[in-house]
Amino acid sequence: MNERQTLAVSGWPVAVILLAIAGGALWLGLSGVRPDLPGLVLGLLVTAYVLAWTGVSIVQPNQSRVVTLFGRYLGSVRRNGFVWTWPLTAKRTVSLRVRNFESAVIKVNDAAGNPVEIAAVIVWRVVDTARAVFNVETYEEFVRVQTETAVRHVASLFPYDNYEAEQRSLRANADEVMESLHRELQGQLEPAGVEVVRTQLRRLAYAPEIAADMLRRQQAEAVVAARTRIVAGAVSMVELALHQLSEQRIVELDEERKAAMVSNLLVVLCGEQRAQPVVNAGTLYQ
Q1: pTM of the model
Q2: Any idea what DSSP says for residue 64?
Q3: Residue 20: in which H helix or E strand, if any?
Q4: DSSP-assigned states of every residue in 71-128
Q5: Taking Cα atoms as reference points, which of 175, 184, 195, 181 lies closest to residue 129?
Q6: How far is CA 240 from CA 150, 235, 252, 266, in A?
Q7: How far is it, in rounded angstroms, from Cα 91 to Cα 56?
């Protein structure tokens, strides 16, 4: 079932007509002209008056009215203001405004099997009032349940951190994760006539039982990466120093002395503490 428009006209002309009917009924009731007619005419006018008033409705901005007649869907009214539609109909208000939903923090195993805590914020709105009212029992509850289901599923597709090169992860590829969540959630909410406007992560962390161990692992990986960068830079500097010494013929070093110089330079460049210089007062080979 898809949304369709139904009869909806301005309510002000109808209100004027109804006031005229009320005035005519009052005049017939009070006048003494043709006393055999006023009773029947008055009854017809009152009936028409009451029936007409059942079609009057007020629609707020960014709201819609779903109109049904004895269980049959007639259409939806999106015209704002004081409107008149079919009489004797039931009218249910459906908000078309943008809303956000903050999912609860759930614990789920990521693609590597590590328990993580994750929560998301979903921005959504109703775009098809007929599907929102008739395809699901309560569309707000449907959005809540489907959001938690989609968040749980998407979190299980990615590891928390990228432990291999070119591997996508929850922490490093948040945009891709949110795009995947957006696509999956939109597909699940399509039957309810709901459009997902935006998705974003509200919380992402390791579960408390492994958080300390994973923190030490991240610290170790950071130390290894930093040391690798330092060693690479030190080797480049030593190579440059030996090349310039040899090219400019500042000093001639045999292989043994080169190895000693390389060792000393690497200790100075890669050490965590400041090196203490030692002055050699003798010759180079003492």
Answers
A1: 0.69
A2: E
A3: helix 11-30
A4: TEEEEEE---EEEE--TT-EEEEEE-S-EEEEPPPEEEE-TTS-EEEEEEEEEEEES-
A5: 195
A6: 55, 9, 15, 13
A7: 10
DSSP, residue by residue, 197-256: EEEEEEEEEE-HHHHHHHHHHHHHHHHHHHHHHHHHHHHHHHHHHHHHHHHTTS----HH
* Residue 164, both tokens: 């291999």
Calpha distance 89→144 (Å, rounded): 30
Q: Edge-to-edge strand order for the sheet containing 90-95?
A: 72-77, 63-69, 90-95
Write the DSSP symbol of residue 68: E
Q: What is the pLDDT of residues 214-226, one digit of tens each?
A: 666 666 666 667 7
pLDDT tens digits, one per residue of 49-81: 788 888 888 999 999 999 999 989 999 999 999
Asked whether the beta carbons of 147 and 185 are under 8 A apart, the reply is: yes
201 with 180: CB under 8 angstroms? no
Kindly state the helix (H) or strand (E) to which residue 59 belongs, with its residue range.
Answer: strand 56-59
Q: What are the strands of the beta sheet with 9-10, ordered from one edge?
A: 9-10, 81-84, 56-59
pLDDT of residue 217: 63
- The interaxial angle of helices 139-155 and 174-189, nearest 10 deg, is 140
Q: Within 10 A of 190 (CB to CB), how many other CB atoms are there?
A: 15
Place of tokens 């190579």: 239
| Strand 63-69 to 90-95 pairing | antiparallel
Could you give the count of Cα atoms lying within 13 Å of 211 in the half-sphere of its Cβ?
9
| Cα(30)–Cα(271) distance, integer angstroms | 110
Given CATH 3.20.20.70, say whether it is the number of domain 99-206.
Answer: no
